[in-house]
């Protein structure tokens, strides 16, 4: 890890050294050979020309800053059909369960989307969840959500799609930014950043801190003396540096750390996650374009679970250290503007284990250690051609995957072995592809179609870690196999007038060997590969801009079924999956600095379990955002979450229910210099 920290600091050192160089002459000679200024972007190479053959949703920095909660997952909820495992956000959800999915392919604590920040995978090495507390929304320039699998050059794992985030650079923001807000419960949210330009580059130092007494996730009818509000405290700190090494080569580095601590449901039921990241990326924009990326991750997790009847400890997952390391190299030969070819390879290794204390009647009775290592080496190629109004793209991946060093050791406090298991190593090759076409049928109309396949390895958590959300225990399964996706889609992008854009996509996706939690009995679930989850449906989106007014919305209607002939759950909807979800927002900007925005979200009925016996009722929530200038660089900010105070059921397990964020009103100030 020290190597990555050193590499990540290199761009800052180079930029500083350039800024300390001798000053230019007072009257320099004109440079006739270099008339164009060098622009340091801090971004990756551009997309292939035919990327728009796939359905892509974009969320810009302005929208990210205007969502009612101010949180990243709230901004992503603008994309109907994109969901976290549960309906609660990261302030009151176990951080190991913050996994995203699309296309109603079944709720899963592991993310079925590949989530990237500046090209670096963000999934937790052990859990496969996304550490949302580690990502400061104020430092994101834009987010692209690529629907459907076949992630191609992005990496493996995106069977439902890819969430590609890009950090804001010095040209995207003010030199100094910050905000401080307080809500009606006493929660606080503070963020700040500085982005000085240094020589031929820049640095961005940013941090955020949020804490509060939280809210009741337990309904009044189920509260007991041991019940507690969902207290939380999270922080993150990141330094990103970018420098121009030569006119065609840019060096980018990032180091970051975060912590996230929560109280879930009962007093003393403490959960936390922490981590450190480092990455370095070299981007060449000359005739032979290239990217070279290396990164490292360290993570830890802890969770103490209490019985919902005795309120005594059931198990204490006190230490879950894990690490991830990887890299990518890609080249693009100079074939002309109408033909873009990308060739590359990426690699990722994740390793981790869990130390767990097991209890009997509130007293530690045994100790368990379980974990292993997963590897993936990918080779890929993708080509894109433009023939007038027709754009074509096609590509493929070959992934060499390995599941190794799996183990489970349980022993008494005296050291007597109770369970000793070492699981055999497994490995193989997986091939996947994606291809599509885009036709500019008219000046206002585009037609697109694509087909794809992909795969996701089971996470270390799914393979080896059992856990309890009392009274239901979910058992691990070291025999899980890779998920395999096949899908296709077609769509229309129509711009009837300049100010209006409408998008409609029909899709059919099927995940073979989909990993889900299967109900065994009233108190036990088992992670299993179901034969398939098959989803087909329609996604619609649109936006309009009329002077000071802007409207945007999306809708996803999906029929999803588990296919398992002979099983009780055959033909039933996957857990956590609504049939209908929708989002809409309206923004009024009467003059610079003044903004009033409202957001409406709807999520349909879903079920907690594989047998569709534990419903999560439909819910509609309304939120708002407003800002106005105060004096100088300061602005007043107001935010409102769930203004109708609707009860949103986020968990229904064995008769115990959790509920989401109630009405919450925030007020504070922002600064931009």
Notes on the protein architecture:
By secondary structure, the protein is mainly beta. It has a single domain (2-16, 45-672), classed as Maltoporin, Chain A (Beta Barrel), CATH 2.40.170. Helices cover 5% and strands 57% of the residues. The chain is built from 4 helices and 38 strands. It has a 27-stranded mixed sheet that branches. A 5-stranded mixed sheet has the order 1-6-7-4-5. Strands 2-3 form a two-stranded antiparallel sheet. The longest helix is centred in the N-terminal third of the chain and has 18 residues, at 2-19. It is globular. The two termini are 35 Å apart. The relative contact order is 0.14.
Topology:
Layout: H1 2-19, E1 56-60, H2 61-64, H3 72-76, E2 83-84, E3 100-101, E4 113-117, E5 120-121, E6 140-147, E7 161-167, E8 176-183, E9 188-194, E10 197-198, E11 201-212, E12 232-246, E13 249-263, E14 270-284, E15 289-306, E16 313-319, E17 322-332, E18 339-360, E19 363-387, E20 390-412, E21 417-422, E22 426-442, E23 445-456, H4 460-464, E24 467-469, E25 472-475, E26 483-494, E27 500-521, E28 524-546, E29 549-563, E30 580-588, E31 595-603, E32 606-607, E33 615-616, E34 619-629, E35 634-641, E36 649-653, E37 656-659, E38 664-672
Parallel strand pairs: 4-7, 25-28
Antiparallel strand pairs: 1-6, 2-3, 4-5, 6-7, 8-9, 8-38, 9-11, 10-11, 11-12, 12-13, 13-14, 14-15, 15-16, 15-17, 16-18, 17-18, 18-19, 19-20, 20-21, 20-22, 22-23, 23-26, 24-25, 26-27, 27-28, 28-29, 29-30, 30-31, 31-34, 32-33, 34-35, 35-38, 36-37
Summarize the structure.
This protein is mainly beta. It has 4 helices and 38 strands.
